[in-house]
Design a protein that fits this description.
mainly alpha
């Protein structure tokens, strides 16, 4: 069945909005557990959306305006499409063998900001995809900071070790913390510039990008 990008977008926005509303807790231990769970659910669905977005664009699907995407590899199955996309995730591109397949566990992190940029940049050279990829590349920088922060915060809360906490510390300069807060309170800190609470700010930006595609 062809991927309908309008349905995928609506579903992803609904999930992000729903789970953002679940961010409630009664003590510090509960806060860590709930934060980790919600961040992981939202992140996994964010990555799933981008996987489907790329597959629809190169394999064929239904665009946001209900127009048909013919795709450049309409006869490829999902592992073959993912293998092609995987070689586009870096600049310069990785070596690619036509028709090769990629195991699910070897797939790239589809929601990673830099991978989205690289795949879009490489696909922009294909005439049938050029206009859409150019539009996406123009849209992404407005959301760059929050998208990168979201990934760092999610990884830190999921792994919760000294290295991940060190990565999290680099974000402290962008947020206002209460005097008694530590870095693990970042989701409740207010972003400098717009005074939005971090958890709401990053999720608003995820949904904002999706709505503007």
């Amino acid at each position: 069945m062809a991927i309908d990008l309008a349905q995928q977008r609506s579903r992803t926005i609904s999930i992000i909005s729903k789970y953002t509303s679940y961010y409630k807790y009664s003590n510090k231990d509960e806060q860590i557990i709930i934060s980790s769970s919600l961040l992981n659910i939202i992140w996994n669905n964010w990555c799933k959306f981008w996987r489907n977005y790329w597959i629809a664009n190169i394999g064929g699907g239904i665009y946001f305006d209900k127009s048909i995407i013919m795709g450049i590899f309409p006869n490829y199955d999902t592992p073959q499409l993912c293998a092609y996309l995987s070689h586009l995730q870096s600049i310069p591109v990785k070596r690619y063998t036509p028709g090769s397949r990629l195991n699910h566990f070897s797939e790239p992190t589809w929601g990673d900001y830099n991978k989205i940029i690289n795949i879009a940049s490489n696909l922009s050279t294909i005439p049938s995809l050029g206009a859409q990829m150019t539009y996406l590349l123009g849209l992404l920088p407005s959301y760059k900071a929050e998208l990168i922060e979201f990934q760092i915060i999610r990884n830190s809360f999921i792994h919760l070790n000294n290295n991940s906490i060190k990565q999290l510390e680099q974000l402290r300069q962008f947020y206002i913390f209460q005097s008694s807060s530590d870095i693990l309170d970042i989701l409740n800190a207010k972003r400098i510039g717009n005074s939005k609470v971090c958890f709401q700010s990053i999720n608003d930006n995820l949904m904002g990008l999706l709505r503007n595609l």
